[in-house]
């Protein structure tokens, strides 16, 4: 698989640019195991940088131009590092342009290069294909420019590129996961200070992604509305961010909030606490608790935060009824896209077959179902 992928990218590079790449960089996608929308409320999120990643095969070209070929889309783009502008035509290119632009604003050297990009992170499915593209870009500029930057700082700059250049008001979760991954570990991230704890999932429990294959239509506009509800809640409660509240503290003051805002706050505060609890349960292999936390998270996402969709409900039913399931829930921003299940490792094949069959029957869509492993964060590599 890896050999074929390398061969494919190498051939594309040689055909486009008439030479061989001088370096290869990669950055992973991620799946959140618990902690939907807690990142911008400065709470906890349990995240897994996954074995689906974005590669960039690169050669410095001695000019001020970046020449790109996106293999998955069969599209080319180029831009000048001396006049970086947003493009409305090749939207994927904005993640690369954005990173170049924030690096320049930091006074860091950026050099022109030729690159082929290839990704196994499904696009626009809630597994952070955009963050993977940003983070792999930052690694490439760092290497070519000969400067140093720690992964945390890199994640923050990539988030800034997305917030300020691309114009998506995301939290830190995606870029952080892509830059700071550790092999074989999930990361419990405290978004209030960006500290992390490595969480080793007990052996015998596997993480399986189930892609509903339904597009995330509302995710942009609804995401903004959820953030606004949370900000209103925090302001009324007199805290800087919602995750300063405890579950009990919020319950005592719930009545001062408008009903919808109260429901949003209730979800976030409980979800952040669940991220910590799930980390403990997964480490201990406590399957009953894993099942309970996942059920609570999905119910809250559906009834309180209202980020689920009909296809997600259909998928949850398929996952819950499949053999070997321990627990399952939403992932990413919600509104379609991918979901995540914890499955007995010995039953993952049976689980996959059952989910594919029952979801296909119920929805008419063939889902993509696959196991993922935890991987290291964005870096150079030898393919
Ligand atoms: C998207 C955003 C993240 C985070 C999640 C929801 O992936 O980019 O910052 O808010 O949604 O948890």
What small molecules does this complex bind? Answer: alpha-D-galactopyranose
Unreliable residue stretches: none
CATH C-level label of the largest domain: Alpha Beta
Question: What global shape is seen?
Answer: globular
Proportion in helices: 40-55%
Radius of gyration: 21 Å
Please report the number of helical segments.
11
For the largest beta-sheet, the strand count, sense and barrel status come to:
8 strands, mixed
Q: State the separation between the terminal residues, measured CA to CA.
A: 11 Å
| CATH third-tier fold name of the largest domain | Ribosomal Protein S5, domain 2
Tally of extended strands?
12
In terms of DSSP E residues, the strand content is 15-25%
Query: What is the string of SSEs from the N terminus onward?
Result: HEEEEHEHHHEEEHHHHHEEHEE
Which CATH-level-2 architecture of the largest domain? 2-Layer Sandwich
Q: On the 0-100 scale, what is the average pLDDT?
A: 97
**Total discrete domains:** 2
Structural class: alpha+beta
Give the arrangement of secondary structure elements:
Elements: H1 2-17, E1 23-34, E2 44-60, E3 65-70, E4 75-80, H2 93-105, E5 113-119, H3 129-145, H4 151-166, H5 173-180, E6 186-190, E7 195-199, E8 205-211, H6 219-237, H7 247-253, H8 259-284, H9 287-303, H10 310-321, E9 325-330, E10 338-344, H11 348-363, E11 368-372, E12 379-380
Parallel strand pairs: 3-5
Antiparallel strand pairs: 1-2, 1-12, 2-5, 2-6, 3-4, 6-7, 8-10, 8-11, 9-10
The protein binds alpha-D-galactopyranose (GLA).
